[in-house]
Each structure stands twice: as C-alpha cells, then as structure tokens.
Amino acid sequence: MNARHMLATAVAALFLTPAFAQTPATPKVDQRQANQAARIEQGKASGQLTDKEAARLEVGQAKVAAKEEKAKSDGVVTKKERAKLQHAENKQSRKIKRQKHDAQTKPAN
Fold this sequence. Notes:
There is one protein chain. By secondary structure, this protein is an all-alpha fold. The chain has helices at 3-22, 27-46, 51-72, 79-100. The chain is built from 4 helices and no strands.
C-alpha cells in the first residue's frame, strides 16, 4: 500500500466517520432480527420449514429490515417508529412460529 493510497483511505475515513456516528442505534431491533434469522435457519436445517416457507419468511425479514432503515433515515428513531418496528417483528415472529409448527415438512433427500 503506497503513501497516496493510505492518505486517501485516511481522508475517506475522516469524512465517513461522522456519517456513521449520526446513524441512530437500534440494538434491540438488530438482535431480534438476528434471532429470527437464526430461527429460520434452524427450521430449514431441521426440516421444519420447506424451502418455499423459508424463502417467504426471509422476504418478511427483509421487509422489517427495510422498515428499520426507513426509520433511521432521518437520523432519529422515534418512540412511535420503535413501536411500529416492534409490531412488525412480533408479526414476523408469529409467522415463523406458525410455519415451523405446521404439518408441512421439508422432504428428506
């Protein structure tokens, strides 16, 4: 890595750091998203979820993530936005539970 490249990297980091610092934190939402993604993966691995069910649930997870990004976009996540995110996560959690415990299973290979 030459000096010019190192200088450009340092300057970019200097300008990008404030942008990241202004992004509001939503650690509870992030942790819940991770937990729900793990539940989907576990369901796929155990055969409780068919590929189609898992794909549908993953789309639902992506929608919740998009709502989170929209809430963060103005730099503040309000109490009302947090409540809406929690509601969306609760709804997604119920869908995961229903799909994992229905009669459909992934066929054995």
